[in-house]
Amino acid sequence: MNAPALAPSPPQRKELELVRVSAALDQLSRVLSPVPVESFAPLEDALSDWRKPRAIGDLGPRFPPLLLAAQACIEAEAELNAFNRALVAQLASRLRFRLTELALPPEVLERIPPALDRLHVFLSARRDDNYGPGDDYFLKDLRFAAGWTVPCGAKVVDLRSRVSLPISLLAALRGRAPDLALRALRPTGRAPWFEHHTESRYLDEFSEAGMDRTYLCVASMLHRHTEVAGLTAYGWLYDPQLAEISPRLAYLRERPLQHGAISLRGHTSDFDIKNATAKSQTRRRLYEAGEYLPVAHRILWPRRDILRWADHTRRANG
């Protein structure tokens, strides 16, 4: 009589889930693509340098011209969208081969298969809109598929983000962190930061408790990425006006600032206005009455302070 098969251990189950969804994305890519998916290899290689700090819209010097060249023979808009969806699906199907070099902690790694599943659902849907360069969803999906951005619950986090020299020095001065100033001025370049972004398609964990879980994920990543200066974010959600206008969102700014982060005033853009007024009748009414103008702010939370907060929070939670 044969012995019953042993159930896979939790780590094995996670690996099997990763393999399953990766295979599904590979199959989807082959179904969608108007060209052989093997032709995506140079595009994947152009996105291989995840360690370079860059702004969110920066896809590097090689990728944009390669993408244009690869699409040169495609004229129909529907085929262009299918090409872009197939490209993202193929890159995402191969993300599992790059995870080791990303040095992610277990609590982030376990979020990869569900995030890939969500991406599969999104890419599988019929899409006739402009899913491509210039589209926020395409940009975020491409960065995730390439391993530049990872899911951390309430937010997605760029593994390398660039902060300007003036902002780096201001952060060092106001945060009383001379080590940051020295790193900003060193010949080898400024230290990179993690940067988190809201993913409007996936808001199931977007809450105060969800943000705390995100910060704990970031703290675990900081232990493994010792060269990273800390966590930063930029946008209208960190505007101090929200403490009165939308107090339920005030925790987004207050939690970091109560534990060592600093805030720098930025500017107002059409993007900030659109997003700040999209889902709130109160903010929309005040904006239309000329009583509220969203102002983007940058939050910078140095690594020593977020690690201190994380240690305290874990001890308090047992």
Walk me through the structure.
The termini are far apart. The protein is 51% helix and 9% strand. It is built from 16 helices and six strands. It is of the alpha+beta class and 318 residues long. The protein has two domains: 11-124, no CATH class; 152-318, Aminopeptidase, CATH 3.40.630.
Proportion of helical residues:
40-55%
> What is the distance, rounded to the nearest whole angstrom, between the alpha carbons of the first and last residues?
46 Å
Principal-axis shape equals: globular
Structural class: alpha+beta
What name does CATH use for the topology of the largest domain?
Answer: Aminopeptidase
Reported for the largest beta sheet, the result is: 6 strands, mixed
Any idea what the CATH architecture of the largest domain is? Answer: 3-Layer(aba) Sandwich
Structure summarized in a few sentences:
The protein is α+β, with helices and mostly antiparallel strands. It has 16 helices and six strands.
List key phrases describing it.
alpha+beta; Aminopeptidase; globular
Write the layout of secondary structure elements.
Elements: H1 10-32, H2 41-46, H3 63-70, H4 77-93, H5 99-102, H6 106-109, H7 112-124, H8 136-146, E1 149-151, E2 156-161, H9 165-174, H10 178-185, E3 193-197, H11 208-224, E4 230-235, H12 242-245, H13 251-257, E5 262-265, H14 270-278, H15 281-288, E6 297-302, H16 303-316
Parallel strand pairs: 3-4
Antiparallel strand pairs: 1-2, 2-3, 4-6, 5-6
